[in-house]
Design brief:
The complex is a heterotrimer.
Chain A (H helix, E strand, L loop, with lengths): L5 H26 L3 E12 L14 E10 L4 E8 H12 L5 H31 L4 E2 L3 E6 H6 L9 E11 L2 E11 L1 H16 L2
Helix pairs in contact in A: 1-3, 1-5, 2-3
Chain B lengths: L8 E5 L3 H14 L4 E5 L2 H10 L4 E5 L7 H11 L4 E6 L6 H8 L1 E5 L4 H12 L3
Parallel strand pairs in B: 1-2, 1-3, 3-4, 4-5
Chain C lengths: L4 E3 L2 E2 H7 L3 E5 L5 E4 L1 H7 L3 H4 L4 H4 L6 H13 L3 E3 L25 E9 L5 E9 L4 H10 L18 H18 L3 E8 L2 H8 L1 H18 L6 E4 L4 E7 L3 H17 L15 E8 L7 H17 L5 E3 L3
Parallel strand pairs in C: 11-12
Antiparallel strand pairs in C: 1-2, 3-4, 3-7, 5-6, 6-7, 8-10, 8-11, 9-10
């Protein structure tokens, strides 16, 4: 895998800044409170480099929302939070004193919607800015051990590259950290960077 | 009423080089006579305004270190006649009103010919 | 409507009409092409009326802003969108059967909007709606929010204290007993100081933990089995103290106040202390006086108010 240039990473970061900005805007309309979403760090990794230690997630249960995007390139996109954080986020979104068991009932669909808003916003920012068009599957939420979820990320024949975005989500002034993980084949990555190069050269 | 041919100085503040390039290109397309200076952070912007006070300024809201809104407030408190546009992909609720109260205006990202046109309108016509 | 055959005499339309969820198909301009029986029944609008209109023209002012935004996004971006029942009660004007539109109570809905792309120029949007009202789990949550529904549970799920419903019955009966047996009864109203600030600053999870800790310590101070601690509201508690007069009641109240303060739960956003504290109002029923449950309750409330006004973290008494 050829390492991306500084300009390419800069452009990619800008795309995700716009995407997460729009996502935060949509979320705050839905929740009715201030929402901030930022991407302090982007990493491009080989699948073999990704493991739970690399992401500081050893021995935790993760809540994962997943959507498969297809078009000029294919991206398997996931929003990841630890399960504890996911429940807190659900409570913040629903804004009331619910008990733990009540929260668990809403967790699945509330997290699905949260993931859907964020993933759609990021990928549609990509579509808008890079002038392409993507389709997607409906979001799926699952809760599993971090090892198990990330094992879906580990080397598959055609998906050796992982783009990891560390994200900070602030709802009602409570700050949470999570990850946006995008899996793509090296062919897809090449294609993505081709579009980014076109975007940069068009400036 | 400012003329499109007048020479003005615009300071572009954004940590993303790509963003600064886009703003520069879009602005120069409409105002080829303007002088564009760049800063990659709020701190850098504050140093520059003292040396080279610009007529207009664009600031990205999302920068490491000093947030864009702070940078805008600081610049305006020293140079209140500067017109400042804050670019943001996440303009919520009453942010536009609080921006107006300090003499700035929010414009949506991504930066396109259209959003730059909005910025120019604020700089030259102003509300 | 194309009634293409699926098999023998069976058409696709018949299959879609038999499905037990709502299906609405829109073209890329948002015009309705399919409106299955489920939707027709739960909206009170027939397919004949709905077809070729847009949802907004069928239901001006009746669609939630979130739904309209989601639909716009789906049509423009062609990405699938979910509207969870958790965050959106009832985006569409759909009702449980039989429809009583006048009472205006919409069905709880879960909605997904899926784009169907045939080609660059030809794409559609399929809206699927399911009824969430019948979920057994959802009923449990509804019960804690709706007092008129009957409820078996008498304890508060979060703290383990008795709940408001239990209080109503128990207070009446203890009061009645005090009146008949000519004994005194004291009522305490306890409220956490600046608790909204606590939640805002430390978050709801911390807020819940604080409530649990407070209840635990209050419970520990109440030794007699007849003394009842109740979670009266979000951050408000009541204590029924049978066979207790003013002096005894005030002593217990002071013990409770101190116990909470001694928990030393840090509270940076309290305006009167650096830890979680409570204000307590107390009122007493004296036998032989013309009084009733309402008067004593109101007096305890007024006493609580006096405690707040006096600067919080204190106990005040009000004669009934």
């Amino acid at each position: 895998m050829i390492a991306p240039s500084e300009m390419q990473l800069d452009a990619l970061t800008e795309v995700f800044n716009v995407g997460t900005g729009r996502a935060a805007s949509s979320l705050s309309e839905i929740i009715g409170d201030e929402v901030k979403l930022s991407v302090p760090r982007i990493q491009l990794l080989q699948a073999s480099e990704v493991n739970t230690e690399a992401l500081f997630l050893k021995n935790t249960r993760l809540g994962a929302v997943q959507q498969n995007f297809s078009g000029p390139f294919n991206i398997n996109a996931m929003l990841l939070f630890t399960e504890e954080r996911a429940l807190e986020i659900v409570r913040d979104m629903m804004g009331s004193q619910l008990s733990l068991s009540e929260l668990a009932e809403y967790e699945q669909e509330a997290m699905c919607e949260l993931g859907n808003v964020i993933l759609n916003a990021c990928l549609s920012a990509m579509s808008d800015m890079l002038k392409l068009s993507l389709n997607s599957s409906l979001p799926l939420y699952s809760v599993d051990s971090s090892e198990s979820i990330l094992s879906k990320v580990f080397p598959k024949e055609n998906q050796p590259v992982i783009l990891v975005l560390h994200i900070n989500l602030v709802i009602e002034k409570r700050r949470t950290q999570g990850y946006l993980v995008f899996l793509l084949s090296s062919a897809s990555l090449e294609n993505l960077f081709k579009h980014i190069d076109q975007f940069i050269s068009g400036i | 009423m400012p003329n499109a041919n007048d020479i003005k100085t615009l300071l572009v503040v954004d940590d993303s080089r790509v963003s600064r390039m886009i703003i520069r290109t879009c602005v120069l397309q409409e105002r080829p006579n303007w002088v564009i200076i760049e800063a990659s952070s709020g701190d850098e912007a504050l140093e520059i305004v003292d040396r080279d006070t610009p007529n207009y300024c664009t600031v990205d809201i999302n920068m490491p270190g000093m947030p864009g809104t702070d940078a805008a407030t600081k610049i305006l408190s020293k140079y209140p006649t500067t017109r400042i546009v804050i670019f943001s992909a996440n303009i919520q609720g009453n942010q536009q009103t609080s921006a107006s109260s300090i003499g700035a205006q929010f414009v949506s990202k991504p930066v396109t010919q259209k959003s730059v046109a909005q910025a120019l309108e604020f700089f030259e016509g102003g509300k | 409507m194309n009634s293409a055959t699926f098999k023998n005499g069976l058409t696709w339309e018949q299959i879609l009409d038999a499905v037990n969820l709502g299906l609405i198909l829109l073209d890329n301009q948002g015009k309705i092409l399919l409106w299955n029986d489920w939707v027709a029944e739960h909206s009170g609008i027939t397919a004949k009326l709905a077809l070729t209109h847009s949802l907004e023209s069928l239901f001006p002012d009746e669609l939630s802003t979130s739904f309209k935004a989601a639909l716009r996004n789906a049509l423009q971006q062609r990405l699938p969108i979910v509207l969870s029942n958790a965050l959106h009660r009832s985006p569409l004007p759909l009702y449980s059967l039989p429809i009583k539109k006048d009472d205006g109570i919409r069905m709880n809905q879960s909605i997904a909007i899926s784009p169907i792309i045939v080609s660059d120029e030809e794409h559609y949007c399929l809206i699927h709606v399911t009824d969430n009202s019948i979920s057994i789990n959802r009923e449990r949550v509804l019960k804690t929010h709706t007092e008129r529904l009957s409820q078996e549970a008498t304890t508060d799920a979060l703290t383990g204290a008795y709940n408001r419903r239990f209080f109503n019955g128990r207070y009446e009966s203890e009061f009645g007993r005090a009146q008949r047996q000519n004994t005194e009864l004291s009522l305490l109203m306890i409220d956490l100081d600046y608790f909204k600030n606590y939640n805002d600053h430390y978050g709801h999870v911390a807020g819940d933990k604080a409530l649990i800790a407070v209840v635990d310590t209050l419970q520990k101070q109440l030794n007699r089995p007849t003394d009842i601690l109740v979670r009266y509201g979000g951050e408000e508690f009541a204590v029924i103290l049978p066979d207790t007069g003013r002096e005894g009641g005030q002593a217990i109240a002071e013990k409770l106040r101190e116990a909470v303060a001694n928990l030393n739960i840090p509270h940076e956003k309290s305006e009167i202390a650096d830890r979680v504290t409570v204000s307590i109002g107390i009122a007493t029923y004296q036998p032989g006086t013309p009084s009733n449950t309402t008067l004593v309750l109101e007096a305890a409330d007024a006493a609580l108010y006096a405690a707040k006004t006096a600067g919080r973290n204190c106990v005040r008494f009000q004669p009934a």
